[in-house]
Write a structure and sequence with these properties.
Layout: E1 10-15, E2 18-22, E3 29-30, H1 35-45, H2 47-52, E4 55-57, H3 68-80, H4 89-92, H5 96-101, H6 118-125, E5 137-139, H7 141-154, E6 162-169, E7 172-173, E8 182-184, E9 189-192, E10 195-199, E11 202-207, H8 219-233, E12 238-243, H9 250-258, E13 261-267, H10 271-276, H11 278-291, E14 295-303, E15 313-322, E16 325-326, E17 329-333, H12 339-347, H13 351-363, H14 374-398, H15 409-417, E18 421-425, E19 430-434, H16 441-452
Parallel strand pairs: 6-12, 12-13
Antiparallel strand pairs: 1-2, 3-18, 4-5, 6-10, 7-9, 8-9, 10-11, 13-17, 14-15, 15-16, 15-17, 18-19
């Protein structure tokens, strides 16, 4: 009898006298059984369905194998699971758990898989504002922007008394000759300059911009749009704008003052500002010399620029001495209160937003810029943003009170989503048998129960 030969059989060091071999012949096996939690999260907030409503599908219905909703689910879940490239989906289209999440275990056509491949998803990512002859899928960018704010509003059972909107710009590096490519001196490279808006852990906006602009460009428009939408639902909420010195622009502060929005913005230091706190700096230097430790003093005073501001404003100053170096810092604000509290407890908390941007860009690949056009990159940025909202909703709803309640998106993916499982498909059910050696089984179970509540 001829010996059966398996070409892709990998041999390893024996264990307990037994040969150890491996092959890619497991059949219906997945490494992403945690996608079921993402589907349960989506069922709780209806993210994919609401996003699909922002797209216009002009394809012939009788010829459609993969709906816009299914493709959006596939793309957003793929990003959340760590599969950021469209090429990945030529294999993922056969993943049984992703197919189950889409509610579609097989295709109508014999030559298709249940899920879409890279070419079909590529047409989604290049959707124009309006469908055309060669681009049959269109999208409404304004509706997608509104959806991000709606998801934030829906996350609250009751209106809060006060919310703080954090604005910040960051770089999105470019490595080719993409549309809108400019060199940025601060980041020392060619990049885009996206504008992010967060409220705590909630993402409210992700606006792609070229890098040849001021970092605060477009802030008034985004702020006006977001504030209008928030106040339509929460008319009495107090809104505070927070940002670094790049946003201390007279046009932004004037708009806030005219529209009942408070602000707390960093202010670049200069000789006149430092002169206002000369006494506090001297006191801090004397204390630091005496104790050998850093010393701080705080002050508040009225200040106006020589030309750029239209009116005087309140400035909070930190006079700090560390060793032989002084470190004066300033913020401009409409808020009343003790100077130290406003600076240390309120303004410095804006640094947490930078961690959220890192999650979007490092964990969820919002900085992928391998397309050619800016509209395609904006859509990719929105898809990554929706993946962030999905995982953050899993964290907020499903993981509250657990050890993963403050975990990053990358940690949640590693602990809860990347779960190996054997999938058995019968006439009556799809059984996903997850590995018995899976870590965080209790957190997985808690998340399942909380998301269904």
């Amino acid at each position: 009898m001829q010996t059966e030969c398996i070409l892709d059989l990998f041999g390893f060091k024996p264990a307990a006298g037994r040969a150890v071999v491996a092959a890619f012949d497991g059949g219906h096996v997945t490494s992403d059984a945690g996608a079921l939690l993402l589907a349960r999260t989506d069922a709780a907030i209806d993210l994919v369905g609401r996003l699909a409503a922002c797209f216009d599908d002009a394809r012939m219905p009788d010829l459609i194998e993969h709906s816009v909703r299914t493709m959006l689910m596939q793309r957003i879940f793929g990003i959340a699971l760590g599969w950021e490239d469209l090429l990945d989906h030529d294999t993922l289209r056969r993943d049984p758990v992703l197919a189950a999440c889409a509610g579609k275990l097989s295709a109508r056509r014999a030559d298709c898989e249940a899920l879409a491949g890279k070419s079909t998803l590529n047409r989604l990512e290049h959707a124009r504002e309006k469908p055309g002859r060669y681009h049959r899928i269109g999208h409404d960018g304004a509706a997608i922007e509104r959806l991000l704010v709606e998801l934030f509003l829906d996350a609250h059972a009751a209106p809060p008394e006060e919310i703080i909107l954090d604005f910040d710009a960051t770089d999105d590096p470019l490595h080719g000759h993409q549309e809108g490519r400019f060199f940025h001196g601060y980041y020392d490279g060619y990049c885009y300059l996206p504008l992010y808006v967060f409220c705590g852990r909630h993402l409210l906006a992700a606006k792609l911009r070229p890098a040849n602009i001021d970092g605060a460009a477009g802030t008034v428009d985004e702020l006006a749009r977001i504030v209008l939408q928030i106040r339509a639902r929460w008319p009495l909420v107090r809104i505070v704008l927070r940002g670094d010195s790049g946003f201390a622009r007279d046009a932004i502060m004037t708009w806030c003052e005219q529209n009942r929005v408070d602000y707390l913005l960093g202010l670049a230091r200069n000789a006149r500002l430092i002169g206002h706190i000369a006494a506090e700096l001297a006191e801090a230097a004397a204390e630091s010399t005496q104790t050998g430790k850093p010393a701080r003093r705080f002050a508040a005073f009225g200040y106006a620029t020589l030309k750029s501001w239209t009116q005087p404003r309140r400035v909070i100053a930190k006079a700090e001495q560390t060793g032989d170096k002084s470190n004066p810092r300033f913020v401009v604000t409409t808020l009343e209160g003790e100077a130290r509290h406003l600076y240390e407890d309120v303004y410095c908390a804006r640094g947490e937003m930078e961690n959220r941007i890192k999650e979007c860009q490092l964990d969820l690949f919002a900085d992928r810029t391998s397309a050619a056009t800016m509209p395609a990159h904006q859509l990719r940025l929105w898809f990554a943003s929706m993946a962030y909202v999905l995982v953050d909703s899993l964290r907020r709803i499903g993981l509250a009170g657990t050890e993963l309640a403050r975990a990053t998106c990358g940690t949640i993916r590693l602990r809860l989503l990347k779960v190996a499982a054997l999938v058995r498909i019968s006439v009556r059910r799809v059984k996903v048998a997850m590995s018995s050696a899976t870590l965080c089984q209790r957190e997985w179970r808690d998340a399942y129960n909380a998301l269904g509540a």
